[in-house]
Amino acid sequence: MAKNRRSRLAPQEYIDGILAHNPFILSRAITLIESQLESDNQLATQIIDKLMPHTGKSIRVGITGVPGVGKSTFIETFGLYLTALEKQNKKVAVLAIDPSSQRSGGSILGDKTRMEKLSNHTNAYIRPSPARSSLGGVGQKTRETMLLCEAAGFDIILIETVGVGQSETIVKGMVDFFLLLMLAGAGDELQGIKRGIMEMADMLVITKADGENKNAATRAKAQYKHALHLFPPNDANWIVPVEICSALENKGIERIWKNITNFANQTSLNGFFKNNRSQQNKEWLYQTLEESLKRDFYQTDFIKKELLDTERQVANGNRNAAEVAKELLTKYYQITSKKTR
Amino acid sequence: MAKNRRSRLAPQEYIDGILAHNPFILSRAITLIESQLESDNQLATQIIDKLMPHTGKSIRVGITGVPGVGKSTFIETFGLYLTALEKQNKKVAVLAIDPSSQRSGGSILGDKTRMEKLSNHTNAYIRPSPARSSLGGVGQKTRETMLLCEAAGFDIILIETVGVGQSETIVKGMVDFFLLLMLAGAGDELQGIKRGIMEMADMLVITKADGENKNAATRAKAQYKHALHLFPPNDANWIVPVEICSALENKGIERIWKNITNFANQTSLNGFFKNNRSQQNKEWLYQTLEESLKRDFYQTDFIKKELLDTERQVANGNRNAAEVAKELLTKYYQITSKKTR
Questions:
Q1: ipTM score here?
Q2: What's the gap in Å between the CA of A32 and the closest CA on chain B?
Q3: Which of A220, B99, B136, B197: CA 20 to 30 A from A78?
């Protein structure tokens, strides 16, 4: 990827462009977030800070599911449904958390042809996840991208994840509603589901409920419903629905959206919606602070050099980690003191 | 608790006393670890650093299970078995991770009368967990206590946890072998088991397999064995055994110890035992460093004061967490610079 192919705009130009819902300016601002240049990232962060009063008005929906569950097809169909919704012309942005993109050579969404109709729709915006970044970094960037999309007038943000590592937890930490797509299997439906995912979900949707698969999907629905009974009620006091759908036959899509709006209405009334966002924002602040503290420490040349040796001694059991840590930190604060002067 | 009831010894006196296996000096050194005085903790840390070459020779066993499973009775019976083992006079230390002690008004092990015989045994040492500390802090202190016990010649360290919060993960991070005690229930054995605990266990032991309960325990054993089949093999390449025992009738205890020694032998041969300890030590170093960095930051007066306001602004969605974090950190490094001069 070439860096800085275009020159930067002035901060106010980004702000004005985004508030005018200009998709080209939005894209250029997102490029700042994803840039490898620290100065670009800082500019983006400042722009977002100014735009904050114009964010938060969308419904943020996380979508996950194992490979093969049909995420792209589902999102295309669901997205097209939303853009045509009640003739209100809902604007839909699709973002992705996909730390695997640098390995597989292409983001799940990099190939926009997989959502061809949606990506060509005026009211839709599809943005692949940035490559070459840590999972935490991708989360941070996706979160900032979401805020820019909200300031640019998007009503619904769909955040997709492939479920590598802790990516579901990261998505769960930035959305209002978390949707788990599942396949109807052959009997023992609960096997192979990643631990902890079911508890995160606000809705289960069994995909590909068409043709020969339809009966299996209906049976799976009953099984999942039963399994969900075993969990205690979630914090939102929301009974997690199980739905079946066919993106191919465009069936069940409306019910899915109905559940999401029901959730938003119910949790707005009982206060959960707002509290959850506040909590997410706070956690974001503390994560950002702590990640920065760690990065500053581990990237100090002296610490990098010292750690090679001391890590080995601690690993071998020759040194007490607490004592080594104290020594390293004392030296670190001495160095920091010199640097900042 | 009165502080500094006794005067401190010189560092070398602690070291010599512990290496001479003097239980009174050991207790006084552990008191330094648990002290509320920073200077006591620092002295303990230095003493442990000097003793490190004499640590690591025990087998470290974590023991967990829900309240009512009979942990104290099991540990008493198991401990007494070990101290009498093959006339080798094995020395057994029992430690506990119990962050709830300050709430319940008494540690699970605080009441030593619950392990009366074991606590009176010459070759046994029972130490309640320190009260008034965070879970991470308790973990750190338990870990250092374990090292002192090893330097004082204990062959087997049993670390008990009641399973509050992340306490099992903390114990798993400092032991060689993790034992999960379970009760035979009424049919659906898998319900009510804390998520993730089964995967941590190196052995499952069904307790109270006596009297009318014996058949239920045998049935439960079969069910748990089946459930364990669903998991992929663990990192140690160890097939997790399921055993039944009765601490009351002193049955099944020998098999439990046999499994632990088999595990130690097998994993010593395949290298897992040593690698696991290295890995645990490294993680301990990084945890200690990162906890210190965070503590230094959050305990700075300026940061405490600023956070009150900025946290609210971020929670409300009025500020971008990334920008706020940058501002706070810049000021923090300026202050740190002034302080250390």
A1: 0.83
A2: 14
A3: A220
